């Protein structure tokens, strides 16, 4: 039998490896062509009904039309998103378990509960892209609460120390920080935070019962109650007045330009997910977000499409958001159970 030279042996081995990769479908091209080839599980760290849940379902419907694969939303509320993050990082890093979170769950919580994170957050979780930005109302109940503006809220809180409760979606959430920051800026107002584990929908119920008097609530979930006249919008957190609510001033116009968070909802994956899958996912989501039908649905929710142009841009954005909130949480001290 004729012996093979080193060059011939190398060529033969390369050919065998290539055939093997194609046979099992693990080559980069095969991975990109086949993803996704089964339903994707999407973790939402809130109960149904809030902006994050609405975003997941709207984007998911379009994603499913585009790919033919299910976009299965699983609501996993609790612990300011830590439960959902834990499940995400423990799942197989194959692009079939994702998370759609917001400012609270994916920037603030990893800072406040750093000791509870299974590992370094930015080394275990990666941003795929932002999806939408969410303006917010400072909304007040109309039950035994005469306040109609931010200055009136400040005056009322000063005249009734300890008598104003404000709703939050959890201790240390961004609406909690926003109201605590307003209280600090307005002269250390004596107001009490009342967290609700059921997210924005729970805070809305608290306002409807007047268990709380005021809250920062995203426009997506609170607009129906503003339109129905059951809530008073004291101000809007946005760069300008909303066209649908021309008589509601911005926080800047109300005298507090640096108070309030224009929230976002973004998509996250395990940081160990292969880059070709992340790139494919990013491209698919961008294509879904470009749908005129989806954009119209987002607009009807008073939300603004805001996807990142590239995967690298999304990842840099998340690092910058973490730095910004590290500064905020240093300035405004909020006690949270560890």
What are the key terms here?
single chain; alpha/beta; D-Maltodextrin-Binding Protein, domain 2; 2 domains; five-stranded mixed β-sheet; 13 helices
N- to C-terminal separation?
A: 72 Å
In total, the number of domains comes to 2
What is the CATH level 1 assignment of the largest domain? Answer: Alpha Beta
Compute the average pLDDT.
88
What string gives the helices and strands in order? Answer: HHEHEHEHHEEHEHEHEHEEHHEH
DSSP, total strands: 11
Biggest beta-sheet profile: 6 strands, mixed
- Rg, please? 23 Å
**What is the share of helical residues?**
40-55%
Shape summary: globular
What does this structure look like?
The structure is a single chain. With 338 residues, the protein is of the alpha/beta class. The protein has 2 domains: 38-133 and 262-331, Bordetella uptake gene, domain 1 (D-Maltodextrin-Binding Protein, domain 2), CATH 3.40.190.150; 136-237, Periplasmic binding protein-like II (D-Maltodextrin-Binding Protein, domain 2), CATH 3.40.190. It is 45% helix and 19% strand. The protein is built from 13 helices and 11 strands. The protein has helices at 6-24, 28-34, 51-67, 82-90, 103-112, 121-124, 150-159, 174-185, 199-209, 219-227, 275-289, 292-300, 311-331; strands spanning 40-44, 71-75, 97-102, 125-134, 136-141, 164-168, 191-195, 214-218, 231-237, 263-270, 304-305. Strands 2-1-3-10-4-11 form a 6-stranded mixed β-sheet. Helix 3 (51-67) packs across helix 11. The longest helix is centred in the C-terminal third of the chain and has 21 residues, at 311-331. The protein is globular and about 65 Å long. Mean pLDDT is 88; it is low at 1-32.
